[in-house]
Specification:
Length: about 425
């Protein structure tokens, strides 16, 4: 297929060993995409500006170092270049023949203005796969509009739905709590890249599957379940439902005696029967308001109040035990502390202690998806700005130390 030869930077054989990715990304979406690929063994070379990716300044810091960056930049090699210089762009073009994929998330047209448009890149390597991630996509009347993940969430429809039902209060629709729009777009880009690589493997050429165009707005919209068909067929504008589900009941978060919240999803007839039994309220099963899912959904507010009055008489740990013994899907609403201590996460290495040279021991999320036969590792944490600059320039461009020193002195490389 023409994959690059493996650069042996990992201790174990992983599913994407032999794939090399050039990241021209910043902030969240493209770097999240490449982190997923790097976690599965791809050799990701991240091109950073001399001052570093802006995300290095985000989130909680220890002595000016971002804890988020420890995860966000992990398993990648960093080379810091000034792409406004001809020498900086020349480095990118000389790295290109050794790469299988380029991932970028500038505004449409920015790569061309930098002198690194797809035509330039493919003049150097015709079969390079290029993944573009942008706010509105590479075409259409909105392509040039500014956007971040939160804008994608608004236009994609999720921000409207992450709220309590209309009329309960007049606060703004709440954010999911993480950069979900960026992350979904990054996931789709990673899926597109692996699909394009498969096509290249299958046919021997990239054919028509060598450009991936992912929009933040479209990535979020694609997750909106029945929102569009319900509007198109019935004129229904889907509304937020708070902690509940509009199509099934009971399924909500309920208060506990110790001030916690517990999720209970007893939204089938057999599960509802188990729930009313552990609540010692068998009469609810014969109540016509709660017979069958449609009736329970129509009377969800009343049912939630009844369940909540019961859950408030017990603490979260006691409730979790009762519900687990009855085999009812349920869980306390986890905080970071709960996640860190969860034995299931620990057993599957989804929560793992990782040594960061600058930060010491740091908790990292594990790698998804899991390939038991080719276990993925956190080979290293997010590196310093340009930590691998000299290494990369020697490995691929065969530059002597003196030339690398000149580039650093000229402000081309850090």
């Amino acid at each position: 297929m023409g994959f690059t030869e493996k650069n042996d930077i990992g201790a174990t054989q992983q599913v994407l060993d032999g794939i090399r990715v050039l990241e021209l990304g910043h902030f969240v979406a493209a770097p999240f995409c490449t982190r997923l690929l790097a976690d599965l063994g791809a050799d990701v070379i991240k091109i950073e500006p001399l001052q570093g990716d802006p995300v290095r300044q985000w989130g909680a810091q220890i002595e000016g170092r971002s804890l988020w960056w420890s995860v966000h930049g992990r398993n990648k090699r960093s080379i810091a270049l000034d792409l406004k210089t001809e020498a900086g762009r020349d480095v990118v073009l000389k790295l290109l023949p050794f790469c299988d994929v380029v991932v970028e998330n500038f505004r449409p047209g920015q790569l061309e203005r930098m002198g690194l448009g797809p035509d330039v890149l493919r003049a150097v390597k015709p079969d390079i796969i290029i993944a573009h991630i942008s706010g509105y996509g590479q075409s259409g009347p909105g392509r040039d509009r500014a956007a971040f993940g939160v804008i994608g969430e608004a236009v994609g429809g999720i921000r409207h739905l992450t709220n309590h039902p209309p009329g309960q209060y007049d606060l703004p629709p709440v954010r999911v709590g993480v950069s979900i729009g960026d992350s979904i777009a990054g996931l789709y880009a990673a899926f597109g890249i692996v699909s394009a690589l498969w096509r290249k493997e299958r046919t021997g050429t990239p054919g028509s599957a060598k450009t991936i165009d992912v929009a933040l707005t479209e990535s979020v919209l694609s997750m909106m379940e029945a929102m569009l068909p319900e509007y198109g067929a019935l004129g229904i504008v889907k509304q937020p439902t708070g902690g509940g589900i509009a199509t099934a009941a009971p399924s909500n978060a309920y208060p506990t005696a110790d001030g916690e919240w517990i999720l209970i999803a007893a939204n089938s007839d057999p599960l509802f029967a188990k729930l009313v039994q552990v609540m010692n309220q068998d009469i609810l099963q014969t109540d016509p308001r709660f017979q069958g899912n449609a009736a329970r959904v129509a009377n969800a507010a009343t049912l939630d109040e009844i369940i909540g009055n019961w859950t408030k008489t017990k603490d979260a740990k006691q409730l979790a035990g009762i519900l687990a013994d009855a085999d009812i899907p349920s869980s306390k609403v986890y905080t970071a502390a709960d996640v860190a201590e969860d034995p299931q996460y620990r057993a599957r290495q989804m929560v793992r202690d990782v040594d960061d040279p600058a930060l010491g021991k740091v908790l990292h999320p594990g790698v998804v998806p899991c390939f038991p036969e080719s276990p993925a590792e956190v080979r290293w944490t997010g590196p310093d700005i340009g930590a691998h600059s000299a290494e990369i320039l020697k490995e691929f461009l065969d530059l002597p130390e003196s030339r690398i020193a000149d580039l650093k002195a000229q402000g081309v490389v850090r």
